Amino acid sequence: MDIKNTVSDEADPSLIWETIVGHASRAGVSDIHLMAQEEAFELAFRLDGELHSQGLLSHEFSRRMISHVRTAASIDIAEHRRPTEGHMRICVDGRDTDLRISAVPTLFGLDLVVRLFDRTLSPLDLNELGLLEQQLERVQDMIQRPHGLILVSGPSGCGKTTTLYAMLRRLTGTGRKIMTIEDPIEYGLHGVNQTQANPRIGVTFASMLTAILRQDPNIIMVGEIRDEETAVTAVRAANSGHLVLATTHANRASRAVETLLSLGGHPYFLVQTLLAVIAQVLVKRLCPHCRTPLPGTADTILDPTVRSYLPGGTSPQLFRGTGCDRCFGTGYKGRMGLFEVFIPDDHTKQLILNRKSAVELERAATKARMIAMEHAGKLALFTGQTTMEELVGTLPVVAVRPREEA
């Protein structure tokens, strides 16, 4: 969708906005960006984690369209000095789509970002996330425990909430009361009592968690542990007979433990309650319609650990996407998760008690046969699910070479 030089200043902003949202929704776009620059506003779509420019709009028309969007989202259009937020709902091809709007004042005007949530899409099931078989078995075992703490960690936008929802879906209908604290609530989950934090009126994750503990829950999901009070309360809740699922922004499992300790979690209580840490990142998935093998990579030197996890009868092979109509010429279609699942044993628990570094913790976990994220990435690479370029841009992956070059 290239709108450059196709929208006049006199165009109806509501109609253009509906066209933009409709196209973005059909293409599976996660965010619409309207960025103020000196000469014009740039419209861009975030698709599979990358921004794709859609063209330029004049300042005059952009201001009118931003005013329309903010009005529809019940945002005060007279406020131009402070960041503002709002939401609205739109129907695209019979599908209800929620839009979360954020506007921030910049040098050349208001920058607008709109996140899309298609309410007709069901959250993924646990076996659809991309966990390897061994990892899936361990997670399924951990979430059935009556109490303890399970952390899901990773950078922003890596699908942590999707993983939490997948776990909660497995836990509904088991005779246990489930409550969540989210910001925002992204999808409604049947059989789950969902609440929303609102820091602007003093309803923080910590205060809501304290209140929820009085509601006699069995399972609590905390959208994010971001401060000392929430960290301490979450560990205390897990230590007092609740199953607590929560997220942090650490990019590795070992770093998530380090983060919780740095936020005030007591090492003794943490080792008593910590069931697992699931660290994850997202990489773009090769388009299955235009995926082709890379010549000369059918016999590649492979780490013995990675080779041991290859499905039986599978030969390692690198692939690339040539680009087609179904993937908008990118060679990729959708994204997939790469995971590492850390379950502390007696040795790693002792390291946590002694406040050892994340490096030492990760080294011990890997020795204990944890499938590291690099291993998961290489498995995805050699089974034709992603590319070396994607892994290098996401993980510190060791380069691979065809056997004849070794």
Helix-strand blueprint:
Layout: H1 13-27, E1 31-36, E2 41-47, E3 50-57, H2 59-72, E4 84-92, E5 95-106, E6 109-118, H3 133-143, E7 148-153, H4 160-171, E8 178-182, E9 193-196, H5 205-212, E10 219-222, H6 228-239, E11 243-248, H7 253-262, H8 267-273, E12 274-286, E13 291-293, H9 304-309, E14 319-321, E15 332-342, H10 346-353, H11 358-367, H12 373-382, H13 388-394
Parallel strand pairs: 7-11, 7-12, 8-9, 8-10, 10-11
Antiparallel strand pairs: 1-2, 1-6, 2-3, 4-5, 5-6, 12-15, 13-14
Count of individual beta strands: 15
Report the radius of gyration as a whole number of Å: 23 Å
Level of helix content? 25-40%
Shape: globular
By secondary-structure content and strand pairing, the structural class works out as alpha/beta
Strand content: 25-35%
* Strand order across the largest sheet: 9-8-10-11-7-12-15
Throw out a few tags for this protein.
single chain, 406 residues, alpha/beta, 6-stranded antiparallel β-sheet, disordered C terminus
Q: What would you say this structure looks like, in words?
A:
With 406 residues, this protein is α/β, with parallel strands linked by helices. The protein is 32% helix and 26% strand. It is built from 13 helices and 15 strands. The chain has helices at residues 13-27, 59-72, 133-143, 160-171, 205-212, 228-239, 253-262, 267-273, 304-309, 346-353, 358-367, 373-382, 388-394, and strands at 31-36, 41-47, 50-57, 84-92, 95-106, 109-118, 148-153, 178-182, 193-196, 219-222, 243-248, 274-286, 291-293, 319-321, 332-342. The chain has a seven-stranded mixed sheet, sandwiched between helices. It has a six-stranded antiparallel sheet with strand order 3-2-1-6-5-4. Strands 13-14 form a two-stranded antiparallel ribbon. A hairpin with a 2-residue loop joins strand 5 and strand 6. Helix 7 (253-262) runs antiparallel to helix 11 (358-367) and helix 8 packs antiparallel against helix 10 (346-353). The longest helix has 15 residues, at 13-27. The radius of gyration is 23 Å and the shape is globular.
